[in-house]
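User: Hey, quick favor. My workstation is busy. Could you predict this chain's structure for me?
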Amino acid sequence: MKLHKEANRLIYAIYLLLAFISSYLAFRAMTWGPWAFSDSSAYVSAARNFASGNGFVIYQSSGAVKIIKEFPPFFPALLSIFGGIKLDYINTLRWWNIFLFSSSTLLISLNIFTATRKHHLSIMAALFFISSPQIVTIYSSAMSEPLFLFLLLLSFFLYQLVLQKDNKPLQFTFLVISSLLPITRYAGILFVVIFGASFFVFSQNTRVIKRIRKTALYYIFAFLPVSLWLFSLFNQLNIVGGKRYSFNINIFQNIARSILEESKVIKFWIPYVEIYIGTFTETFIILFTAILIIFLIGSAIKQLISSNRATELHKKHLFFLLIMLIFGYILFISLTHSITIPQIDIIDRMMIPVYPLCIFIFFLSINALIDKIGKENLLTVFIVALSFLGLRYNFLRTNSYIKTMEENGHGFTARAYHQSGLINEIRKLSWDQELISNSSGFVLFYTNRYPMQVNNFPNYAYGSGNSYGENSFRENNTALIILFSDFSNYYGENSENLLYSLTNSLNVNYVDIEGGIYYYR
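Assistant: No problem, here it is.
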């Protein structure tokens, strides 16, 4: 008995160590702050204004107020609570992400252990999670994805507990947490739909009428927060969300093309695929991995279907739920990508909710295979040895990413901007002064004022013509803020000559290697 208690303490210590490691990785990756771009600026600005009692809005430098409609409000609302008196959201986001990453690591372990009752599998799953460069990148961002992933993992854990126990407080907690998914990211609507459908399908010992009533009540309350938000948008702006939608006869072809784009993103989650070692070898690795996963899932499902024990039925429910969640999300994103204007980008950040679900289904498959073969020790040694290669590759890539972030940072919080005087000079500009910029998100992030965004500058001294923004620049003493890195990225090899033509006759208020502030002569 004493030996058993000591073993349990050691295992719990390992779980806490993994959570600490994830905190340490996130802390190092955010040395200069969580990386941020235009979406981050919108979240941070909405949080600032909500904390000030002005609602989910963005203040333009002209004095106009723009209601946030592209993003659901829960992330900026939660962020506003922790911003402090000074509303220092860079540090707030840094510590917030550290908490979310360590908590999510524990939730990965809890989910796998609750489903398998095998500590070594839950520890391996957590290692795959914290070693993933895609996961570490997401949890070092000023975006809503870290919060969304945490809520998704917590929802899945509560779902397992609700399946195992008919407990009213647990059911209520699951309802509350899952209702936060759509109000954090609109893709959460898909997860709520599938959670509700799974409860209906898997509650086979309950009468159909009662199942329908419980499912309907779940949908009503789970969708209530996001429905109120969408209704308020429709009431104020006569729109739902921040996108326009277009349906045409090529929609199925577009969906297929979108799924192909998603597969190109997901394939780089597989260790070693990103190394260029020839098309044939890369294809072989992908096919081998796909066959292995299909074999594991197929063997597991066969094992589960052949059993009617309560524990095996529970695992069977989880398997089919995971399959529905993964394929449902892939179809949801492909449909959204096909019909929205402007189109969403299919990148790691968009596909990341699938990552922990793939970890779940992989280790649940391994667990079912172990139970079927009955040679746990031998198979465990083989799995650990095989997994070590993938973990080693992931940790090397993650360590490389973290070193880069420690040295230079990324996006609006990069080291170069912190060490430049540009941010302070922008902050010194008068609050009632209009602003124009080629990187309005950068200015918004640091000042809570959104300048007039100009992308296509003319090839002459700005203000001497009549292109977009020139009249205001010429007549209203408007400040022109140019971020040189964004300017160079947008215009390429022509950027140097264009920048000279644009600014050579303007009055320079401030200029350094990162950017400049100009006025009309």
